[in-house]
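Hi L.,

As promised, Aminoacyl-tRNA synthetase class I anticodon-binding domain-containing protein:
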Amino acid sequence: EQWDKDHLEEALKTAIVEGRGMPDGEGIKPRLAYGPLRVAVTGRQVSPPLFESMEILGSSSTLNRLKALRAQLG
C-alpha cells in the first residue's frame, strides 16, 4: 500500500468522485467530497493541500482522524 499524495489522490478520486466506493455507485463532486475530508484531516476549511497533508501526517494519524469524523457523523 502506497501512502503518498499521488496514490491517495487517485484512490479517493476513484472511490468517491467516480463513485466506485459508494453504495449507489454515484460519484460526488470533488468540492463536496474533499471538503469534509479536509476538515477531518486538518481541522480547518482552508488548509494546505489535502493529499500532501495526508501524506505528511501518515496513514495512522490520518485514518484515526477520518474514523473520528465517521463516529461524529454516526
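The mean pLDDT is 93.

Thanks again for sending the construct details.

K.
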